[in-house]
Amino acid sequence: MAAATGGDKPPLYQQVKHELLAAIAAGEYAPGRPFVTQREICERFNVSHATAVRALNDLATEGYVVRRRGQGTFVADRPPAASSPPDKTIACVLQNQGPHVGQILTGIEEVCADLGYRLFLNHCENDPAREEKVLWGALEHQVSGIIVYPAEGSLTVAPYAEARRRGVPLVMVDRYRPDLATDAVVADNMAVGRELTAELIESGHRTIATLWDEIDVTSIRDRLAGHVQALRENDIPVRPDLTVLRRYREQPTEARRAMLNELLHGSHPPSVLLCSNGYALATVAQDLVALGLEVPGDIDLACMDDAGPFDVLPLTAAAISLPARDMGRRAMTLLHDRVSGKPSETQLIVLPVTIQTRQSSAGYMRISRLEKGAS
């Protein structure tokens, strides 16, 4: 374990303590059995004896381990029970902001108001380290439950394991972590990729290029899988250069436009650019204008969701509308069921999506480069 750097990470002894708590929660150390020694902690985490001692002292003080004179340290037979919170409080951990996340939050807030919960909101700006810190803070404040919109690429495990050990319900929204057994409420992202691609094929598009924003989240991987499925169902070859999962929006402007120019002027150029979300679509539209291309004259656009800085429908041949508000409501309702002690298996709730086409829209927008001197 590397030494803590930056202001957002907890002290090193707390990091060690959290790792050890996760190990206990995962069953690596059974109740009543010998616990890891001070020397083993030093070797395992590459920390000083002082750090190891402080982590062990905290675990003993909080009742996770017990010390027996002349025998050593053992895992407690019964983990300490968290005291009941004075009132019903929910921590909501969201990534990014914008209309899509705002609608999810609106749904959560509506159910909180109906059921009498207090809501503590944290925006983590898609930062896994910040997400971990906020989750530990929520547990320390003994919230009744937690809703998480997980960060892209997050691998943190310890606070989730500790929430499970304490019996604090946790529901993920919009996306889920395949490595963690938690409740989740998501849109049908397989259908997003499959149905949107099928609509484009029916409209005459046979060569479809995908452009991505985030890549390391379940929603995007499911959308790509649905897209590929639709291509195969329609006997269209899956071209790696058109389906490669790579970031578009984060590239430098010149690199993006060079890649786009090469793609559109190849031997078999796409007739439509299928963007992963509204933010990618907005960037692509700007780049097309800079390259002197018209939409829909030279190339068409489609979008896998309506999350973005503006309404994506006027710019697209087809786009998906996500049930963002309903996702928030269903996530909070499920969390309330868990807080209330209603028994049930872990659930993955998948909500249907809506596809909208240019023909069903009230109108559409053409984008083109405005030459100097034009009136």
TrEMBL record:
GO terms for molecular function: DNA binding. This is LacI family DNA-binding transcriptional regulator. Keywords: DNA-binding, Transcription, Transcription regulation. It comes from the Bacteria. PROSITE patterns: HTH_GNTR. InterPro entries: LacI/GalR-like_sensor, Peripla_BP_I, Tscrpt_reg_HTH_GntR, WH-like_DNA-bd_sf, WH_DNA-bd_sf. Signal peptide: none annotated. Gene3D superfamilies: 3.40.50.2300, Winged helix-like DNA-binding domain superfamily/Winged helix DNA-binding domain. Residues 10-78 form the HTH gntR-type domain.
